């Protein structure tokens, strides 16, 4: 196999699978607790409203840290950030499980908020590593890594469900699972690509480093990053609708039995997983820009079709189209944000991640309010406008306002070009 990097292929391959396993670990750790949320609600005796406030803790913690994940990754490096961040998440989720055991909702909320903050750090670190591996390979890989996260979340959910069925105490289950995940992430992080040297240590050719590009001004940077944020938001809006509203749509608007209404989420997530598995090949074949346009169109048509479909079958087809369309939006947004010259390392990924987490906190309450004022189909149509706007912009602001982005295939020195590619 040919790559565009001077690193040995064995090193690249090991780093690629380590990054994918890191994504899977990050998905598996919190999902194991989420699978037992019904037990958490019952154990604490919470009303639906109070439980809704409690479970927002993970998202709130991620939103509160703002730019801290990028700072941590620059100071510690992505490998240490991923390893230590996962240990932090595990400890905080164990704290939340202890809060459930001892009947303290406040301890549970504190644990979830702190875990959410750690998850934001790990998210930026693992995506930054995935983007570096992708650049060294010279082809798209980040979508399949996000598919690894989906696999990990499914495994973590299955472990949590199995532990509940076997009657394993929540605290014991989460402590053991946290140890497993922390060890797994530690092993993965040891196989990450070596950290690039800071600019002052780069040698006699600082002009070859990405940071040497002129940094756009603040206003121009907002115009560059805003379309990318809309692309990412178009993707997570589909996930939010699938998680929180697909069953409500099928049961309330399509007369599907409540016990079977969860099929909407299953269909959407399955389509998203397939899209992530195939996404890298599509990006390599069509280019990220055309792939993104097709994906956003799929989100618009899928969500709009699901909102106004006359029956359950067409609604499921719409949800599948939306899931397939949203599969590559977040990875492409991260990769493009990371490639903007003039930004400090990891800043673009951090900013996009923060916007996603912050808006996600408000999305479901906004859909609920619009449903109360009108109807669920109208609310879903309003959310679809995010993807419509992202599609209209087509990232033109990035093309017109930004300096040329770093190429996916990194430039090599003359000496490197003379070496035969590793196969």
TrEMBL record:
Which stretches are transmembrane? 17-37, 49-70, 82-100, 146-168, 214-236, 256-278, 290-309, 315-337, 349-370, 376-399
Transmembrane found in the keyword field: yes
Primary location recorded for the protein, binned into one broad class: membrane
Q: Where in the cell is it found?
A: Membrane
**Annotated InterPro entries:** MFS_trans_sf, MFS_Transporter
Its placement in the membrane is given as: Multi-pass membrane protein
Question: What is the recorded name of this protein?
Answer: MFS family permease
């Amino acid at each position: 196999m040919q790559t565009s990097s001077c690193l040995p292929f064995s090193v690249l391959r090991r780093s690629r699978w380590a990054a994918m396993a890191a994504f899977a670990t990050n998905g598996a750790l919190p999902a194991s607790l989420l699978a037992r949320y019904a037990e958490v609600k019952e154990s604490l005796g919470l009303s639906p409203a109070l439980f809704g406030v409690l479970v927002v803790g993970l998202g709130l913690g991620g939103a509160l840290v703002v730019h801290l994940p990028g700072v941590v990754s620059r100071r510690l490096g992505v490998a240490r950030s991923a390893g230590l961040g996962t240990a932090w998440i595990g400890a905080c989720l164990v704290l939340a499980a202890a809060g459930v055991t001892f009947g303290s909702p406040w301890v549970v909320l504190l644990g979830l908020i702190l875990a959410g903050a750690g998850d934001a750090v790990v998210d930026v670190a693992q995506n930054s590593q995935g983007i570096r591996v992708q650049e060294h390979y010279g082809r798209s890989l980040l979508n399949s890594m996000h598919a690894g996260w989906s696999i990990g979340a499914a495994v973590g959910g299955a472990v949590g469900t199995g532990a509940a069925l076997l009657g394993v105490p929540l605290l014991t289950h989460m402590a053991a699972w946290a140890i497993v995940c922390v060890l797994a992430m530690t092993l993965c992080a040891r196989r990450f690509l070596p950290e690039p040297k800071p600019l002052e240590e780069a040698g006699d050719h600082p002009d070859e480093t990405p940071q040497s590009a002129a940094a756009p001004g603040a206003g121009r940077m907002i115009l560059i990053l805003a379309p990318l944020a809309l692309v990412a938001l178009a993707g997570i809006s589909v996930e939010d609708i699938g998680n929180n509203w697909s069953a409500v749509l099928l049961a309330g608007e399509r007369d599907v039995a409540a016990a079977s209404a969860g099929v909407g989420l299953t269909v959407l997530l399955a389509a998203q997983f397939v899209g992530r598995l195939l996404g890298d090949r599509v990006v390599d074949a069509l280019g990220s820009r055309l792939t993104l346009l097709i994906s956003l169109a799929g989100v618009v048509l899928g969500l709009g079709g699901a909102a106004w479909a006359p029956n359950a079958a067409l609604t499921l087809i719409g949800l599948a189209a939306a899931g397939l369309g949203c599969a590559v939006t977040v990875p492409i947004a991260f990769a493009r944000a990371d490639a903007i010259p003039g930004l400090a390392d990891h800043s673009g990924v951090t900013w996009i991640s923060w916007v996603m987490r912050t808006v996600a906190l408000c999305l479901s309450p906004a859909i609920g309010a619009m449903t109360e004022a009108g109807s669920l189909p109208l609310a879903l149509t309003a959310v679809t406008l995010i993807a419509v706007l992202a599609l209209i912009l087509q990232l033109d602001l990035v093309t017109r306002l930004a300096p040329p982005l770093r190429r996916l295939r990194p430039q090599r020195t003359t000496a490197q070009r003379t070496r035969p590619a590793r196969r």
